[in-house]
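Archive entry: two folds, one per protein. Generate the first.
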Amino acid sequence: MRGIMISAFAPGRLELIGNHTDYNDGYVMAIAVNLGVTIQGQAREDNTVVLRSQPFGEDTFSLDELKKSGDKPWSNYFRGVLEQLQKAGAPLKGFEAEISSTLPSGAGMSSSAALEVATLLLAQKIFDFEFGDIHDPALRVSLAAMCRAAENDFVGVKCGILDQVSSMMGRKDHAVFIDCRTLEVQQIPLSGEVCFVVCHTGAKHMLLSSKYNQRHSECMEAVKMLNMNKIEVQALRDVDVETVKRNAGIFMERVFRRAMHVVTENGRVLAARDALANGDILALGKLMYESHESSRDAFENSTEYLDQLVEIARGLPGCLGARLTGGGFGGATINLVYRDAADQFMTDLMRIYREKSGKEPQAWKLEASDGAE
């Protein structure tokens, strides 16, 4: 590409706690990480979009007729955002863009949401249209919702809004608490004593080929059964543990377990928010372990490799908490670790896991970072 290049960056995110609570109108807490997606681009004179991406290659399509790509699925995240912008009346024309990423693919850091957010900000910069003050938190949350709609409606993943809001609303050295119904966002300071270590199992993590959408359907089935039995709720966020237990007989057994996970996980997120606000990192770590156990046993979106990583981490010095992060069914764990123990923790975790599993793990020491720009 030639001429003046315009750039946008969006960070990935790590889910600290709140597994599959977002699309149930619940609560979740995450951080934006110091890795992400950068897109550089410039306008063209026609309505053609040319994408170049490492490692995926190149894609070309017309804005006149945005269709889902079957052979280049990575570009659908890009296409879906452009479709949302068209619906919102943004004056788009063709452009060329080069996509690069420091996010490891399939590690549960939501490279897809980072791509969506960076796409939206790049288009806004290239074509100089305004939705309002881009630094206004309310506007940033609404733009995150537009990116989520692209993933739900165009890509076909029934995700909640966690990933996109985290990428937009991240703040250095802070966790992001999100009420996924009201879209209230709180930025809560993190202790300087700790950092986060992410460890990838070496197993692939692809939401579209996983049971993610099945879990979404099972949660919706739980809501349907409650309403059929005159317990009026909009989402699992509206029901407490005792109500689910008292009505256990109305659910298929697996649907009961999915509902119990979501309801108890919402309680853990609220407790984690309070723990962070009080500087109680030991309590946060305990809640992370409990979250993983619920994901493993009730929601069944863990794997033997994720479970191995969590159990190994539990026995290593300096680790306060560990759990799967992201959609599950592969991917990575997040570990809350004392900062001065993090390097040795990473070394020991990968060595022991490699010996036990025969898989080749990867690990990163990550910090909470600012949101997209």
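Generate the second and append.
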Amino acid sequence: MTLTLNLSPELEQYLLQEANRQELSVEAVALQLLKNSILLKQKQAEAINLLQSWIEEEDGSEQQETGQYLIQALDEDRLSERKLFPHEMKGITW
């Protein structure tokens, strides 16, 4: 598939710098970033689905406790301050 993108000057500069740093073409770097982003979203969705299935199992209180612990641990063990499971999105995205 061929895709044409109109990039902001900042994004174009980032891609050029990253391509130079990795000694790859701009196209290869853009494809790599897109692929990594999609894979990350898939892994996050799988983790959320697994946690939700644990929460919904018959032994509700134990599973909810374990699920809450995992959510808390995943949110605390991040390089970013942005939470992976923000409380205001509970019931909407997870």
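Annotation attached to the second fold: The chain has three helices and no strands. The CA atoms of residues 4 and 27 lie 11 Å apart.
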